[in-house]
Predict the structure of Aspartokinase.
Amino acid sequence: MKILKFGGTSVGSPERMRALLDIINPAERQIVVLSAMSGTTNSLVEISNALLKEDKQKGIELINTLKDKYDVVVTELLPEGDFRQQGQEVVDYHFNFLLSLANNVFTAIEDKVVLAQGELLSTTLYHVYLKSIGVPSVLLPALDFMKIDEDNEPVIPYTTENLTPILEANPDTNLFITQGFICRNSFGEVDNLRRGGSDYTASLLGAAILAEEVQIWTDIDGMHNNDPRIVKGTKPIANLSFDEAAELAYFGAKILHPQSVFPAQRYKIPVRLLNTMEPQAFGTVISTESEKGKIKSIAAKDGITAIKIQSSRMLLAYGFLRKVFEVFERYKTPIDMITTSEVAVSLTVDFTDNLDQIVEELNSFGSVELDRNQTIVCVVGDFGAEKHGFASKVLDAIKHLPVRMISYGGSAYNISLLINTDDKVEALRSLHNRIFE
């Protein structure tokens, strides 16, 4: 069995929904994971924000506006008669439910419920569409088998235990439709997988049932060797290792979230990145195999703040770094890069909501300096200890630009450079020309 995930753009209109059958082969056994229709999640966030602010009138107006769009979708997607009526009943049910939430006390718990409606709508409408054209399918409610624990980590054995019997009960059905992104938490409440969303769902399902392959269908033909929005002449990478893909995803490649790689990596399930606009394109295969001794790609992550803590008195003292890291742990702020010297430690963060409190605590260790508007440029490839020449090639390509930090050796797969965001475009283009031309 294969897992096929389609994002919001791929189901963004009735025309796109119909076109999915050019990719989905009903003769092959597969689980199809769908995101909400493009634009829906943003609208649901607006609705939720209005209701959290107790602006009931605005919330109801936004709900009705979104419903009008779905009324049009039903008319364009489904033929007149019973199936259109079924589709309209689906839309009416979900939007009446949203209106009922608007008329009651609204909390963060209801917020998660609101966000879940997009995936529930897209999957149910697509299931009705398949019925209308005579394609057998089973609608799998993700809330019945996707679960996270008290640490917000997915419980893969729970998915295996609860999903496998459903698949076994439908041996003659090849096509199963389910929701990405949504799940239940440890209290049984509706929740979501947050970052990574539907990609994460697909990878978790692949791991849970030991699928043959996970396919992530987007609007780009695989992971490129640089950012195609900035650099001309980029090319898709045919093969990446799980580690290389995770590095690229974490440091800026938008096509995939790094969290989505880990379940597939743990269970050795190949992940293929494919383009709905060009279904015949090879895309990118992420697996345990990769071409050795080669630079694969360049990615950039914006919104970085560098923090330098200088303390000749304490830096070499036993436990100093532990105390520094504990500050970030208390404020649930992950660190991207870190470098040290005899008298200072520099590190970077991209989550700055608690930065003022963090800096206040760090001041007790020494002087603290901040550099905002920084970008991490990450060069990814096979950089094992026995390889040589890669670091000099990278640094030579940007020798005309100021570099704030360099991180090399923490992983066998990346060289990370911290630069001013104003220099990002020049850095990406210069690296591309030096490495790939």
Q: What stands out?
A: The chain has a mean pLDDT of 92. The first strand starts at residue 2 and ends at 6. Residues 108-132 form the longest helix (25 residues).
